[in-house]
Design brief:
Elements (H helix, E strand, L loop, with lengths): L1 H7 L1 H61 L2 H11 L4 H22 L1 E2 L2 E2 L3 E6 L4 E5 L17 E5 L4 E10 L2 E11 L17 E6 L4 E4 L8 H7 L8 E2 L15 E8 L4 E8 H5 L5 H7 L2 H70 L4 E5 L4 E5 L1 H7 L3 H5 L10 H14 L3 E8 L5 E13 L2 E10 L1 H15 L9 H18 L3 E8 L2 H8 L1 H18 L5 E6 L2 E7 L7 H11 L2 E5 L2 E5 L1 E8 L6 H18 L4 E3 L3 H21 L3 E10 L5 E12 L3 E3 L1 H11 L2 H16 L7 E5 L2 H4 L4 H12 L6 E5 L2 H4 L2 H14 L2 E7 L5 H7 L4 E4 L1 H6 L4 H16 L3 E4 L5 H10 L3 E2 L8 E2 L3 H14 L28
Parallel strand pairs: 23-24, 26-28, 28-29, 29-30, 30-31, 31-32, 32-33
Antiparallel strand pairs: 1-2, 3-4, 3-7, 5-6, 6-7, 8-9, 8-12, 10-11, 11-12, 13-14, 13-17, 15-16, 16-17, 18-20, 18-23, 19-20, 21-22, 25-26, 25-33, 25-34, 26-27
Helix pairs in contact: 2-8, 3-4, 14-15, 20-22
Keywords: Coiled coil
Protein name: EAL domain-containing protein
Organism: Rhodovastum atsumiense
Amino acid sequence: MTMNRLFARWPLLVAVAFCAYASVLLWNGFRAQAQLTAAAEARFAAEAARQAARLGDFLAERRSDISELADAHEIEAYLTNKALGMSLRYGLAASLEAIEQRLRRWQAKTVFRGQQIFGDIAFVDIDGTRLAELGNGDVAVALPSGLLGGPVIALDPVSRRIGTVAPVRHKGAIVGAVVAFSDLGILAGHLRADPDATGLREVLLSAAGEELAAVQVTPALDPELGRALVPLPAGQVVRTAEAVPPLPPAALRGMVVVRTPVPGFPLSLATLAREQDLYGTITSRAFLHALSVLPPLVLLAALMLDRMQRRNLALQARYLETARRRDELYTRNTALSREISRREAVEAALRESEQRLRKLFDAAPLPGYLVDPSDTAIVDCNDAAAAMLGYTRDMLRRMRVSDIAPDAERCEALWRRPTLMGEAVQFETRHRTRSGEMRDVVIAAVPVDIGGRRLACSTVVDITERKLAEARILYLAQHDALTGLPNRMLLTRRIAEATAAGEGQGGGFVVLSLDLDGFKAINDTMGREVGDTVLCRFAERLRALVRPQDTVARTGGDAFTILVRDLAPSETAEQVAQRLLDGLPLPVDQGGYVSSLCASIGIALYPDDGADGRTLLKNADTALDRAKAERKGGFCRFEGWMDRTLADRRALERDLRLAVERRELEVFFQPQFACDSLRVVGFEALIRWRHPERGFVSPGVFIPLAEECGLIVPIGRMVLEQSCTLAAGWQPRCRVAVNLSPVQFRDTGLLPLLSEILHRTGLPAALLELEVTEGVLIKDEDQALATLRSLKDLGVHIALDDFGTGYSSLSYLRRFPFDGLKIDKCFVQAQQQDSGTRTILEAVLTMSQRLNLRVVAEGVETQEQLAMLREQGCTELQGFLLGRPMPAHEVPDFLARVTVEMAGREGGRHLRLAVSNAMPLPAPRAAGQGQG
């Protein structure tokens, strides 16, 4: 309460605070004024002292100048000559002339602000007689009595001159003096004054108060003022109005003056200035005294205002109380009137809102119900709901929601939730249409009060199509699009389920990994459509061979995996695999030739061969690789040592990468001979790898590995570049054949690379033959044809390698621009025992002659094979009988030796073969690089 009263009297508190604050400001004002005044007077006195010092220095310099002149050697020479008795006529006149010249030079040297200081200069004897002079010689000179002490300066205010006298001594006695006169006005050049004589003014006074020098202004200084200024204390600033006695004239009021003695001379410098110029904007004391009256006046006014305010507050309180009572009565009456109006407006708005909601409910595109949750009776519905269910609105109003729901009890529980929870709810259920079709729906219901009844207003979204789409998407995500079998994702999930069930119950299961044997050849030769048909038939065969509870999955390409759960006690995993192999052989029509397609199987058991799905699948694949390596069409169960085999393969891949980086692979060359003359017509480039630990690694091992891990392209580039470089230097010139892998053939950079290598090595394009297999032609025949034609445009030769091992070779000869064929060694070596093979080989040779194609028979190893090929008309031969693969550095010697033997042979039919020290290891060839 006390604080509230203080706040109510805030004007008085503010006035008291203001008075205290103003008092402090006034005290500081008086103090600051005194400090500023003292500082201004100190600066004024200091400047006057500097001016007086400059005047003293000027007069002292003149005294020093005249003293220097009195000691001049010209005057000393004159006095010496005179003492020697020299007469004026015979020598003294010249000395006096020299003195005058010296006086003239000295006069010209002593200047102040461009004006000569001394006007009259004379050299006089002890009696004052002028012996030598400059200027006006009419002025009488009386030597002062004080010359014994040195030069004397006398200021004459009457003649307005400054007389400077310096004694001339000769042999210790004063024998004369040098006298110089200057205008007293020259001292005015050191003084300051305002032009209007009302501001700053400096006056030089004698000891008697006579004005000696001043800047001439109007009006002139009153002579009485000078005598009045002399008694003033030296260096003290005095206001003219406060001087005792007062300074005349009265015009000097409002000014200050300071008298400063000139050091070294009986003179004073009087400096006058206006008070306003000296003190500037320093507040006058009268103004501060006037301000000091303000705080009491403010405090008095605040006291009066406080009293009046308290009286007004009392009157206002009585008035407010009366007004409050009147307003309270008016407010109650107004509130009653507003409440009546509001109720009327609410009722009207409710009626209008009900009409709008009714229209909106009826016209809404989404189905909607108004349901009584107590018994699920449909109170009302819109046209969309009737259309969705196939009923009329009147029929639905006589039904319950439980009548159209498959589960009436669950339906009633769901519809009671909005009223029980008192908020909007959403749930998913199913409705039966009038035709009996079940529809999946999502219902959003909110509780509403209508006519005193607690109902649930809902919207219904038909999600049947969405559920079907989701199921389809889920199916597609977990099943193979071609065969309809589960894919790897679904298989992995089911293996995880089986693993969890096995851990809980202690049961085991089997994972079988299958791979079709020979499917790649079918896919490459017959096309992808035929391959897809074979895969679908194989998938149907697998489904027919397993139980319904087992899972058959396609995990990629021609790879399948079977999960066999709950294996019967009387059946082993091996028996299951054998049953599958017995029922799997699938007949396939390969262009009129029906073959039986089989599979190889790898087996992994849980928990013996792995505790999780990833390990089981990996181990089953490892066992499958082993089964394919041992005998295609069989099965193999996983064993621990197989992991080591896989690790060895990974190590071999790592070493192969290092070998490619370090350029450790070597290119060997196997000669090719003309069948009739056995003349060397070319060489085939073969790749070899001398492993630092494993020794020579068969191309049949590392070439497939290079194709799988992507190293075949850099290896092929290296073989092509080295072959062209070496062949360019062979003598005599002969052809070099390089095999292109399918990956190299499809590389867009092949043509630029080949053109650059031929240009750089200088090898004629006609001496390079590129060998391709059917594998590079199958996938995109149009693109392959364009590539082959581009290669032909470069001038290189194209040969079809391994002719006869595929099923489309004849059609390739018709479509593609080949220069020659290479007969696979299996035909060459089998024709002696198989008449059918011999017939096929003879037909190929006859056809090649008709098509003008060069034929190279590979794998010639016996004289019998050589003889048969000659009889059959083969054009070229290649094989161990004639020449083994040799390192690159042995080729020139081999060519030279064979050339000499050919030249020395005169009609002989057999050439003595010189077989080089080539590798004793037969070199099986692999797809992708030529091997011999």
